[in-house]
Structure formats: C-alpha cells, structure tokens
Amino acid sequence: MSTLRTATIYQLQIPFVESFTHHTAQRRFCDSVVVKVVDDAGVEGFGEGVPRPYVTGENPAFMIDHLAHTLLPSVLGRELPLIQAPADLAQLDEFVDPRPPVGVRSDNACRSALELAMLDCCLRRQGTSAAALFAVGGHTVIYSGIISAGALDTALAHARQMKLIGLQQIKIKVGYPDDVARVRAIRELFGPTASIRLDANGAWTLPDAVEMLGALAAFDIAAVEQPLAAGAVDDLVRLRQATPIVIVVDESLVTVADADELIERGAVDVFNIRVSKCGGLWRALEIARRAERGGVGVQIGAQVGETAILSAAGRLIAASVSNPMFVEGSYGTLLLVEDIGAEEVRFGRRGRGRVLGGPGLGLSIREDRLRKHSADVVEVRLPVDAR
Amino acid sequence: MPGEASVPHTRFMDTTSVYEAHVTALTESLGFRQFESGRLTKDQYDRFILNVGRTHTKSPQLLAFLFSMAPPAAAASIRGNMLEELGVADELGQAHPALLEQLLHGAGLAHRSADIRGLAEMDMRRLVTESLLYESLAQVGLAAMIEVTAFEYMLSRVADRMATALATHRGLSAHAIEWFTHHGSVDIGHAATGVRNIETYVEYYAIDDHDATTILEIAMRENAFIKRYFADVTTALVATTLVIEPAR
User: Fold this and answer.
1) I need a surface site. Which of A257, A350, B47, B101 has the fewest CB within 10 A?
2) Chain centre to alpha carbon of residue B119
3) Phi first, then psi: what are they for A9, rounded to 5°?
C-alpha cells in the first residue's frame, strides 16, 4: 500500500504553435495545471486539470490555492486505496475532500489533476498500467480534427492540413457572420463522405440557432455542439424539437447531476465528456454510464492545449466506453511547441492513436520540461514531524 | 453540395518567402536579440551552444535519408551535401559533427558531448518512430527536405552573425566557431540548390500543388530555429515552497 508524502503543482504555460480561437476565447498557450504526487516509496504520479472559468469557474490561481490548501491536505499522509478494477476508482474519488468548493461552480479540474496523479502513482506502485486496468491494451482510437474560428483563409489552411493527414471527422467552430461560407468551403474541400459537425460554444440564442441550423443543414451536418449558452435547458428541449440535427452538450454538462437533469428533460442527444471538465476518470465514466442507460450518445472531448497526461486519460476513456460517436484531443506537438511526455501521444495518419500501455497512465513525464514551461511551481509537503 | 466552390488555390513554391519570414522571426526574437547584443549569461550562451550541437549532430543521417529519396536530377547535389557533412567531399573536408565537437571543446563543454549525442539520438529515434501523418514516403521525404533546407537557408543568412556573437560575447576562438563560419559561407549555395531540389522533388514525385503547399505549411508551422536553438535559453522560473498541515 502507498502513502502520499509530497506533491508539486505546476502551472503550465506551454506556447502553442499557433493560436486557437472559438466563440468564448482565444488561446495562445496551454494553461494546464499539473500535479505530481510522490509516495512513501518514492513512486511518482502525474495528473492534469485545465481550468476553464466559463465552464467550472476555475482559473489557474484558484486551482493552485484549492489544491494546496484544501484537496492535497486531505490526501497527503494517508494510505491510498488498492486499485484492481475500474470500479475501485470510486475510492480514489471519495479519497479527496468531498466538500463543495466556495466561489466556483465546481472544482472538477482540480479533482481531475489530483485523481489522475493518484491513479498514476497507485498503478505504478502496484506494477500495472491503466491500459491493463481498463482491459484496453492495444486498442486504437480514431480522432476528429477541430477547425478553430478566425480568418476563413486560416481555417481553410487548417482544413487542408487535416485532409492531407487523412482525418475524416471534422468539427468546425461556428458562431460568426461567415459561418455559412466557412462550412460550405470546408464541406466542398472534404467532399461528401467526411463527417462534419459544428461547435457554437453557446454563441446562439434559440431563434439564432433554429435559423442557422436551418441554413447549415444543407451541408450534411452530423451534429451541433453547445448551440445555446449553458443553463438554457428549456431552450435546448425546444431546439431539439425544432431541428433534426443531433445536439451535443459540452459547457452544459459538468457534473453527474447535470447529466441526470439533461437526460430527464430530454434535452440532448449526445454528451461531450471531458476528463478535466468532469472531475477525473471516475466521474467521467459515471456520466458515460448514465448516458448509456439514458439512451444518450457520448463524445469524448478534450481541452484545447491539453498535455500528454489528459490525452492519455482521454484515450483510455474513449477506448473503454461503448461506441463513442466522436473522439477529440491528442494534438500533442501539432499544437504545443513541446509536450511533457517522453512518449508520443499525438495521433497519426487518419487520426489513429493507440492506447499507451506503459506503467500507470502510460507516460514518462519529463519534469525538466514541466519546469521549463511553468509560470509557477508550488511544492506541498508534510511538516517533518508529521512524516 | 450547395453553392460554388470557394477553396482558394495556392501555388506551391512559396518556399523562399516562408523561409525568409522564419529567418526574420528568428532574428527579431527576444532570445536572438539578447544573444547578439551580449545580454545573455555565460550559462545561457552555453545552452545555445548545446542546443546547436543537439540539433545538428545527426545531420549526416538526415541527408542520407534525403539522398535515398532524391530524384535523379537532385541526387548529385544532395550526395554532395551528404559527403560534405561527412567530411569526405574533398581532401580538406572535416566532418560536421566533428566541427560541433570542436565547438563544444572550445566552449569548455566537452564533458557534455556524450549527453548531447544521447539527446540527438533520442530526437532521431522519436523522429523515426512517431506516428506518421503523411500518406506516402514521398510526402515524408518532402517534409524532411523542406526542414533541412530551411536550416541551410537560415544558416546562410545568420550563421556569421552567430559566430560573431559567440566570439565577442562568449570569447570563443575562430577555431571553436568554425561550424558557424563554415555554414555561413557554404550554405548560401546549398540553400539555393536546396530550394530548387524541393521543386524538382515535387515534380518528380508528382505531388499535387495543394498537397505540397500543405506539407510546407505543416513542416514550417512553427519556427524550428527559435524552438531548437533558443527555447530554453531565456527561461527563468522561481518555485515557491509551501508547507501544509497533514490531513486529520
């Protein structure tokens, strides 16, 4: 059994190769928070969360403060549970201070970072891997490409790159005056067989959404993600009745309670499940289970600019759940100037990525790179007399 | 599909302007300006030197790959480059990896030589084992040729400035900086030939103009010069240590 002794929090700022834009934000660097835990045998584990103020209310400063003063004190010095089956992840979730955070909608990015770090540490200590735990060793996942907002010429350049590398599932960020021209051009570039879907990041009102989806339906749209602002569940129900296009929710879905409400209200066709947004693997899988029971599809999403840690975790979930409609993420060094793992997680030709089979989450984290790209580093440890 | 086609068509062969933009971005970058004006510490100059060593130690292997892919019309010049890298193009030739060793020795960094070779080997391993993005080996070869030629183009324009900065601000001898002065003098010709070779390659392998342009965009999507030479040169990080109470 393993007892956690120390932790280090890295607030990353890894520059992007180029900026990524959508309706709510323009990003130029990875703003993940990575947690490293070390147990009494010196075994390390790394986890990651990505704060999104407009989704969970968290920002990097909140994450560092909350992890250092609330969540890490609840786990350091305690014996970690034995993880022998996916169901044991519930114990890791319960291991962390369960009190709701103050001042934010949820502390899910913090929990994601800590849960993944503890899981990585537990599995390494036990001499096994997450791929073995989930019985997905050797599985391959097919990723979508995402075309950021911004100038049409730039969007088309990205689209050509994605076509060249063989991606056949494309998500286009919309919510701008040139949406119709953009979607038309990308559909023409890819031809009729590619799957094209939209993500409005909550840009539209209900009347806007009905009008825009009507105008865009001619381009054979597979789904539209977060057409309305989060919280507008009544309007989502109406929109779902007004359009034949599959509706995916992202920002509207943060907690298991959100999932239950959306299913009960019949407001959605597909959940976009992201490990960081949903609070780690256990909670993400719990939402996937609710979706399956409720007849709702799942998309395994990602955080823009996530590092290899969340990419590896997302790939595990994507390989574990039954028939995800779409999978996103694993851009690695296609977006980041440098990733933090020794292993390559970036998807390859046609968007294919194999589940990593190494110990823990399957990564060898390069701590020199973490330090190089950190805006702040906080070390958290027990006082000498408490060890 | 409804509507008219509106995908803009970009002719390939904008290689030189892309290279020029990257060279300008390098010389205007904070790291390079500090490097050239003597505002780096000795340790930072050393990191730059080590980065150059890591980047170029395996250049002969890359050129060997390009030679294996070369169209007949480009084979002679690529073979010439490769032999020059190996130091066997003429009787006075010196292998370029040996010039890099000379640089490390001259800078008092000979003890880091094995580390640099190890890192370069790791980079090479990653290059050849990571998931391929491209559809064919011909496309992979084009991407590699674009990147190798980019460095020749940059060095032909900037290597002499780098040599001067290292001599002036790091106190290196003319012998130590020979790798830079050599590249500053010979790569003007290499770069011009390299750009022509890229065009020959695209034509020989019948790579579609759109695809060739897209491969150029992917290969040059980030400034490899800044990334490889300066990424960790000007980093400053202060870690805060916080001691917390144990859980109850």
Assistant:
1) A257
2) 15
3) -110, 125
Residue A15, CB half-sphere, CA atoms under 13 Å: how many? 11
Do residues B107 and B46 lie in contact, with contact meaning Cβ atoms separated by under 8 Å? yes
More confident residue, A371 or B158: B158
Q: What is the pLDDT of residue A386?
A: 60
Contact B247 A76 (CB under 8 A): yes
Cα separation, A182 vs A176, in Å, equals 9
Whole-model pTM: value is 0.90
Interchain contact, A78 vs B247, CB within 8 Å: yes
Among the listed residues B104, B106, B56, B103, the one whose alpha carbon sits nearest the alpha carbon of residue B81: B56
Which residue in A69, A77, A379 is closest to B247 by CB distance?
A77
For residue A97, give the nearest of A118, A56, A66 by alpha carbon. Answer: A66
For B213: left if phi > 0, alpha if psi spans -120 to 50, otherwise beta; the answer is alpha
> Mean pLDDT over all residues of chain A?
94
Report pLDDT digits (tens) over B72-128. 999 999 999 999 889 887 777 889 999 999 999 999 999 999 999 999 999 999 888
What is the rounded CA–CA span in Å between residue B49 and residue B55? 10
Nearest chain B CA: its distance from A379 CA (Å): 5
- For residue B41, give how far its alpha carbon lies from the nearest alpha carbon of chain A (Å): 17
Residue B173 Ramachandran class (φ > 0 left, ψ -120 to 50 alpha, else beta): beta
* Beta carbons within 8 Å of A375's beta carbon, 6+ residues apart: A11, A12, A13, A60
A312 in Cβ contact with A345 (< 8 Å): yes
Distances (CA, A) of A20 to A28, A30, A167, A302, B49: 7, 10, 19, 14, 33
